[in-house]
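Researcher: Good morning. I'm working through a list of sequences from a screen, and I'd like to move beyond sequence-only analysis. For each chain I'm collecting a predicted structure so we can compare shapes side by side. This is the next one on the list. No need for commentary yet; just the structure.
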Amino acid sequence: MKVFVIAGEPSGDKLGAALMAGLKELAPGVTFDGVGGAGMIREGMVSRFPMEELSVMGLAEVLPRYFDLKRRIAEVAEAVLEAQPDVLITIDSPDFCLRVAKRVKAASSLRIVHYVAPTVWAWRPKRAEKMAALVDQVLALLPFEPPYMEAAGVACDFVGHPVVAEPVAAEEEAGAFREAYGIGDAPCLLVLPGSRRGEVARLAPVFGEVLEQVVAAQPGLRVVVPTVASVLEDVRALTEGWPGRPVILGPDEEAQAFPRGAAKRAAFRAADGALAASGTVSLELAAAGTPMVIAYDMAWLSRQIIGRMLRVDTVTLVNLVSETRAVPEFIGAECVPERIAPALLEVLAAPGAQEAAMRSTMERLGRGGEAPGLRAARAVLNRL
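Model: Good morning. Structure tokens for this chain:
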């Protein structure tokens, strides 16, 4: 069996690597071709070119690369047709992957699977119909997504979210983290203002004002700010002067006692609560059992447009998956310190209020069951 797989960014590479491992387990002798990152290469792919060429976001970043990306789309589509695999699997990165799928579909009857359903439940529902015209099957991360895709005419399987397969720190590791960073028994708050420069620039000043109020009410509170390398210096500059003696936890600045990545996991487990930007981080917090408040804002024009297009009354994934509204969220015009701070103090005072919703979320995403990569592999094979 020959499988052609395309991923365009690190999150897709992780999904692809787990899927490839599952296919190797269920279909011994399977071979792989395509484009992927380090994880997929470890599973046996020789990437046709560095995946990083496709990891471009934002209009300003895409425009200078437009002709290179267009050439790569044509090149990859031609490679798929020449390889004649049993199935083409494209992973997220719809701007690139679906353009490849369109060319392949127009020139062949090859079966095409796309991994990660578009968020049609939140906005732009027509995307489901556009995808249905290009692919034969969709693999969904969230349990409520298949009906939306099936209504548009494409087979869709819920295969579980990768967060349930990620390791969670033990209590001993949480204690070691508190000791290593001098937190001790003090209340500890995670603050996560995003992973993109625009998000951090917009949210960090608001979060700083929230902390002024929260630390005034709880003077012993310690603040931990996990961040990624791409915004580390921005976070350092924007958090200067924050109360709570913040620990800035970058990927290369972890204590000697922790392997790379382990300090962040330990911080999530050690924290008493979190203030976070909207996104999949809410699922990471739920996996660690850390209660949270979600806050997010965007540029004024984007706020007006997206606000009118939203089809749901909450954007927090824990609320959506658990079918509750247990996690307080402050989006757009509501993202102001005077509203966020009281909610955060309430969460810190009664952390157990979100426990059932977080547990339900993890169960519905597949915790305790078959690993998502294996489920995804089985779904692909079952429909071949």
